[in-house]
Amino acid sequence: MITPCQLVQLAGAGQFGILLASVQVPAILDWKHELARLHPFLRRLFWVYGVFIVLTIIGFGVITLSYAPELLEGRPLARGVAALMAVFWLARLAVQCFVFDARPFLTNRWRRLGYHTLTAAFVFFTAVYGWTALR
Questions:
Q1: Closest CA relative to residue 125, chosen from 92, 80, 79
Q2: Distance (Å, rounded) from C-alpha 68 to C-alpha 71?
Q3: Over residues 2-10, mean pLDDT
Q4: What is the 3-state secondary structure (H, E, C) of the chain?
């Protein structure tokens, strides 16, 4: 049986899996060609936003893996951090479901599997961090 600490650590490690998958996005979505049409300021802004999101996910993963037992202690700061992570992943899940229409890019079985795996990961992260914040 998996312990609560192992469950939280799995969520922490899973975020690095998300980052590994995100490395493929620029090629799959042909960012080199698509972003070339943007004004240079907007192109840089797009990349800066992407870097900040990556740094946030790295931070969440490092905090989770380094402090999983502390996150589970239920102290106010730990609950707040877990709640922040839950809200972040819930928002990302909402974007996945209600904002992005990825169908034009889901052109083969592997891309569809990857997309649905990401969706499942976002549900898992939201559930684990939400449970951690509320327990």
A1: 92
A2: 5
A3: 97
A4: CCCHHHHHHHHHHHHHHHHHHHCCHHHHCCHHHHHHCCCHHHHHHHHHHHHHHHHHHHHHHHHHHHHHHHHCCCCHHHHHHHHHHHHHHHHHHHHHHHCCCCHHHCCCHHHHHHHHHHHHHHHHHHHHHHHHHHC
CA distance 9 to 70: 12
- 39-89 confidence digits (pLDDT tens): 999 999 999 999 999 999 999 999 999 999 999 999 999 999 999 999 999
pTM above 0.85, yes or no: yes
